[in-house]
Amino acid sequence: xxxIELDRVSKRFGxxxxxADLSLxxxxxxxxxxxxxxxxxxxxxxxxxxxxxxxxxxxxxIGGTRVDTLPPGARGVAMVFQHYALYPHMTIYENxxxxxxxxxxxxxxxxRLIHEAARILEIEPLLERKPGQLSGGQxxxxxxxxxxxxNPRAYLFDEPLSNLDAAxxxxxxxxxxxxxxxxxxxxxxVTHDQVEAMTLAARIVVLNxxxxxxIGTPMEIYARPASEFVARFVGSPA
Length: 238
Ligand code: ADP
Ligand code: MG
Prior knowledge:
Elements: E1 4-13, E2 16-26, E3 31-35, H1 42-50, E4 57-62, E5 65-66, E6 77-80, H2 92-98, H3 107-120, H4 136-149, E7 154-158, H5 166-183, E8 187-191, H6 194-200, E9 203-208, E10 211-216, H7 218-223, H8 228-235
Parallel strand pairs: 3-8, 3-9, 6-7, 7-8
Antiparallel strand pairs: 1-2, 1-4, 4-5, 9-10
Helix pairs in contact: 2-4, 3-4
The chain binds adenosine-5'-diphosphate and magnesium ion.
Adenosine-5'-diphosphate binds near residues 18, 38 and 42.
């Protein structure tokens, strides 16, 4: 597992500065939440780390190595999206195997990895089904499984639970917490839901327009909000 460093990262869309000179460090094995209102730049930040979006300034380092000039496939991170992004024409097994095709993993090992991840996520009986035959929660677990088998240096989750109903969201949240207990993977979990951030993350990065508003443990942020914005955002019910 690897640390992730953002060093004065900036991003512009046209004339709009979405991220400005943002620096922060995520330690190896740490579970960090990016928390902030819709449109504050959470997805853009994550996509820049994954390499799906170019940085306009600054550097991104993973495990001490500069990656912002590398293509997504060379960064060793796995991203899980809000909308699953599973291939509809492939089975769940094929979806999970797909990400491994480029990394020269022997066939038997691929099979072992997929069954291991499917067992942890309790989707083993679903491996031969196609995404269209799965519920929302099952699809989301399949998407998490696909990230797991890649054995990445870090996991990037972009609001992975926001499409699920309340009961399933809670259950999957508990599963994610359990998974992190086992795997101890460097994880960035993007959410606009303060309860999710508070219950999952060791540290929370509160984002507001373009910048970090506050970084701290859930308790620090709750007990000592650094600004009016944080106090209002963290204090308001989900
Ligand atoms: P969040 O994930 O926190 O809701 P985003 O990172 O998706 O926020 O978006 C941050 C801002 O950047 C928003 O104002 C959004 O409209 C804008 N934005 C995001 N992607 C693009 C794009 N490809 N082109 C232009 N503007 C974009
Ligand atoms: Mg977003």
